[in-house]
Inverse folding.
């Protein structure tokens, strides 16, 4: 017999109250550890050669520009960053306390190791990076198009599995490029990896598959050369269509539930390709494209580095996408793009702008460092967690976001300067990070149901910010970009209403009715959202609010909590 | 610090009072009532623009520049209009409004990728990794804002989304996106004024603390947006978004669909003083089955809404001061492909403009017999923008300074299209 919804709710509620009680009981910590301390081990390079080399290369540029780096971030700031960037949410008060009270000299390295390799965090790590990779591979709206051939859940299943097992990145790239099979979990021959390409191969002779594969894995922007040679791009139109020829044995087919006319999903298949000529010759399956002057040219599959593969369109002779997968796996651009993507994720800017445009026309800011890190990634069997460790333990990642007089303008990418990483650049949380952070800050994450249920609820909430343009290139825009709709959502939206609820059993209710003294309650709220204690002035305002709410502690805490969550300091990763 | 709001204050008064409170200086909350004496005067000559954005790239040779009989021509027949130019038979209502509109038939651009075309047609610049250019809406509302000191709602509104952002002009000029029902989500806090005030005071303290630590622009921008948001939450001008309050005849005239309502809302927003409104209409990326799609759904829809908008603005005496632009990121190939569709094409196509004192009833420029080439002087995104600036009384000498200190001329030094003014 299954439980009624009400029963489920009651159990969840009870579990949640227990969880909050347990968490609050470990609040009593000595005040001293809350000073703005910085751990010493950031200067030692923590014994990892790659970290030392990063620090060295980054410092060279500081010397060139005669600037001094910002001071070190406090332990609290650093800890908040690491949780946000690695597992997609702020640390809970308990997690923060553990880190801050530890006197272990190597505690930063230890925390990174825990988040990356401890079983307790495997799922959180996989979920966060699944979200990131899903957005890279199919965008925020991928799968929600009318008659979509993409199954978002299918891709996420593949990614979660791959990331939880820390699959080498080159293998993941190979699988996403070469995948065949069905796109929806539960279908026969299911292979979630097909969802990267399943919507991109049918329309317009797979031009989108060509452009996205080159961009995502190689950092080469070829889409603008589809129609003509481009003055700012060394790529010629010929190269676009040679790359495109790799995708011409591939089709995405709609599949139906047996015996019905209900679409159950799509299947990505390889088929023999006869070529486009007037008298098709599958032994030399050619494609044609039009020059701007109206002339027509022929193209066969040739990789970006000039490597040719057999021209046959017969699968028994050559499977073009498999060849492409191998070539991508061997390409020098693959590790470079991966390093650039990760660097930008953690430091706010990549070595190129945009990060996925790395052709010779767009030289990187730190070429030697990029080259070096790419080589090391390859040497470490494409273990992305290695690169993550190097970056997170490096000096630039440990710097404060507070500027100093030497780097305030010279190192401000918003002023058109190239990033020199002499300070931590402010960046707004992604919508997903905000969502997860609100859950963890209100302890609602402990009772949230299965991954599929969580994703569904989250997707419904995220939907309000996404506008898909409905074109063949999957273009989209987000209004979660620091503008009015976002501010309105934070002021008055359901998610924040729920996070600031004072109803029985809620986060604030539990805190209000705990044995903590009022100053501790206020401290707790600031730690939960901002990973720091309130300032004197903030304590004064909080006390006034307690006063005007006339003994209704929950209501006063609600006002404080609302203000904290709506602050720039909360939503900006700093 | 004072946390009590005086008794008997209305919400509007309270908000303006807040602006003066030393505890939280939110200057944007000031109402500008002192300027109200000038309001009537300004209202008379305040200019606006409405961009009807056809997302996906509409096939203009099936709408505004037909080639009957040519192998590329397709099945549609041209019909005569109230102006000099002929248009598609599937645009009968617009045919009666063409004396107000000009077709620029000699557009020739180079960006045939959606993302790049969208950017180029919205900004007059090709994408450049080192700089983010502001879109039409940001630039024009930036230039026209001084004419409307009384405006409390955002000056750049997009209905249905899809514009390009404010670039180096800053988030204050970002488009405010609403859906075609004009519903703005999360507008109500449901708190009394005392409490809202107290919360804002606490919030302001945290905001300022963070800003004072000199961590970068994002911290300050956040505070600016908070002010604008508070303005919006308390403004009576939000009524302008409530398109469903229009009489049923109006909804019927524009078409009771997303685009119809969007156009109707655009008129309401122009009346309220919003200088730039973009109405998004998607579904033009017709790689297959193009003519059935156009004849059955796309063209009847825009025909009704666009003709209603032009006619309505004219009847209300607003057309003279409101420029209308109809365009997409590019157009579609003259050649009809194997799926009975047309693909991306930027070399020869049409944009339609009108109002704002521009000449109507004309076709500017011409394409060759099968529509594959522009035979007259070619025009670009920059030229369209320069012409719109002229129509709105904005000097083409206006220069912006990008974040990097680079001076950038408005409309990227485009040239005014002479035939539109004479």
């Amino acid at each position: 017999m299954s439980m009624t919804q009400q029963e489920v709710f009651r159990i969840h509620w009870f579990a949640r109250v227990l969880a909050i009680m347990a968490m609050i009981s470990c609040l009593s910590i000595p005040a001293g550890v809350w000073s703005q301390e910085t751990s010493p081990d950031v200067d030692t390079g923590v014994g990892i050669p790659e970290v030392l080399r990063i620090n060295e290369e980054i410092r060279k540029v500081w010397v060139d520009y005669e600037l001094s780096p910002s001071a070190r971030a406090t332990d609290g700031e650093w800890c908040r960053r690491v949780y946000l960037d690695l597992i997609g949410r702020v640390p809970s008060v308990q997690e923060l306390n553990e880190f801050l009270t530890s006197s272990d000299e190597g505690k930063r390295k230890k925390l990174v190791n825990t988040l990356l390799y401890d079983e307790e965090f495997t799922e959180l790590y996989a979920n966060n990076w699944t979200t990131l990779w899903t957005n890279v591979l199919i965008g925020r709206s991928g799968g929600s198009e009318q008659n979509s051939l993409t199954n978002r859940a299918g891709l996420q299943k593949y990614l979660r599995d791959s990331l939880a097992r820390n699959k080498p990145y080159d293998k993941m790239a190979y699988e996403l490029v070469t995948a065949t099979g069905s796109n929806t979990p539960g279908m026969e021959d299911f292979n979630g990896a097909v969802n990267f390409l399943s919507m991109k191969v049918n329309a317009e002779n797979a031009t989108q598959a060509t452009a996205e594969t080159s961009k995502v894995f190689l950092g080469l922007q070829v889409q603008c050369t589809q129609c003509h040679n481009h003055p700012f791009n060394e790529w010629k139109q010929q190269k676009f269509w040679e790359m495109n020829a790799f995708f011409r044995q591939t089709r995405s087919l709609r599949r139906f539930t047996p015996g019905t006319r209900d679409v159950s999903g799509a299947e990505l298949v390889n088929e023999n390709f006869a070529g486009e000529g007037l008298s098709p010759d599958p032994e030399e399956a050619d494609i044609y494209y039009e020059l701007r002057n109206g002339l027509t040219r022929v193209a066969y599959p040739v990789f970006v580095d000039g490597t040719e593969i057999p021209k046959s369109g017969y699968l028994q002779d050559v499977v073009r996408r498999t060849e492409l997968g191998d070539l991508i796996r061997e390409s020098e651009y693959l590790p470079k793009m991966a390093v650039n993507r990760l660097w930008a994720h953690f430091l706010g800017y990549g070595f190129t702008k945009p990060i996925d445009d790395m052709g010779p026309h767009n030289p990187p800011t730190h070429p030697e460092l990029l080259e070096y890190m790419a080589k090391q990634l390859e040497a470490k069997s494409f273990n992305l967690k290695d690169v993550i460790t190097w970056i997170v333990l490096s000096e630039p990642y440990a710097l404060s976001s507070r500027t100093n007089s030497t780097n305030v303008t010279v190192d401000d990418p918003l002023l058109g300067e190239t990033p020199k990483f002499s300070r931590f650049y402010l960046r707004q949380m992604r919508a997903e990070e905000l969502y997860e952070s609100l859950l963890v800050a209100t302890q609602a994450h402990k009772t949230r149901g299965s991954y599929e249920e969580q994703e569904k609820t989250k997707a419904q909430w995220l939907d309000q910010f996404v506008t898909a343009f409905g074109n063949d290139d999957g273009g989209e825009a987000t209004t979660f970009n620091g503008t009015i709709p976002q501010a309105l959502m934070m002021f008055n939206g359901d998610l924040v209403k729920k996070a600031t609820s004072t109803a029985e059993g809620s986060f604030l209710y539990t805190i209000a009715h705990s044995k903590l003294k009022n100053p501790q309650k206020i401290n707790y709220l600031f730690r939960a959202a901002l990973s720091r204690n309130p300032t004197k002035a903030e304590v004064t305002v909080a006390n006034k609010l307690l006063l005007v709410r006339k003994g209704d502690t929950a209501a006063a805490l609600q006002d404080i909590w609302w203000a904290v969550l709506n602050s720039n300091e909360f939503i900006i990763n700093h | 610090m004072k946390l009590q709001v005086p008794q008997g204050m209305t919400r509007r008064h309270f908000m303006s009072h807040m602006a003066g409170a030393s505890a939280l200086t939110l200057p944007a909350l000031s109402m500008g009532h002192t300027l109200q004496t000038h309001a009537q005067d300004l209202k008379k000559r305040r200019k606006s623009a409405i961009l009807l954005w056809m997302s996906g790239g509409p096939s203009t040779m099936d709408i505004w520049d037909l080639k009957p009989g040519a192998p590329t021509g397709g099945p549609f027949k041209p019909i005569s209009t109230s102006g000099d130019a002929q248009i598609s038979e599937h645009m009968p209502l617009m045919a009666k409004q063409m004396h107000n509109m000009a077709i620029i038939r000699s557009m020739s651009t180079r960006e045939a990728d959606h993302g790049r075309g969208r950017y180029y047609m919205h900004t007059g610049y090709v994408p450049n990794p080192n700089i983010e250019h502001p879109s039409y809406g940001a630039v024009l509302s930036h230039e026209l804002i001084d004419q409307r000191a009384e405006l409390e709602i955002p000056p750049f509104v997009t209905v249905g989304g899809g514009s390009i952002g404010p670039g180096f002009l800053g988030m204050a000029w970002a488009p405010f996106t609403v859906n075609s029902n004009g519903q703005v989500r999360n507008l109500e806090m449901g708190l009394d004024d005392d409490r809202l005030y107290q919360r804002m005071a606490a919030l302001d303290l945290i905001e300022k603390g963070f800003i004072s630590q000199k961590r970068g622009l994002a911290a300050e921008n956040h505070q600016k947006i908070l002010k604008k948001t508070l303005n919006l939450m308390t403004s009576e001008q939000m009524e302008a978004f409530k398109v469903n309050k229009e009489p049923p005849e109006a909804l019927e005239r524009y078409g009771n669909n997303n685009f119809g309502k969007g156009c109707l809302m655009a008129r309401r927003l122009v009346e309220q003083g919003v200088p730039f409104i973009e109405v998004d209409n998607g579904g033009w990326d017709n790689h297959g089955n193009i003519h059935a799609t156009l004849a059955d759904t796309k063209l009847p829809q825009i025909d009704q809404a666009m003709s209603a908008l032009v006619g309505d603005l004219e009847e209300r005496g607003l057309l003279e001061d409101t420029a209308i632009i109809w365009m997409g990121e590019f157009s579609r190939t003259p050649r009809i492909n194997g799926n009975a569709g047309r693909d991306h094409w930027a070399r020869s196509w049409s944009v339609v403009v009108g109002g704002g004192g521009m000449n109507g009833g004309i076709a500017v420029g011409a394409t060759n017999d099968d529509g594959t080439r522009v035979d007259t002087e070619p025009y670009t995104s920059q030229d369209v923008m320069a012409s719109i600036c002229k129509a709105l009384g904005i000097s083409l000498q206006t220069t912006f300074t990008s974040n990097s200190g680079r001076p950038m001329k408005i409309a990227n030094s485009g040239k005014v299209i002479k035939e539109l003014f004479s």
Remarks:
- The two ends of chain B are 62 Å apart (CA to CA).
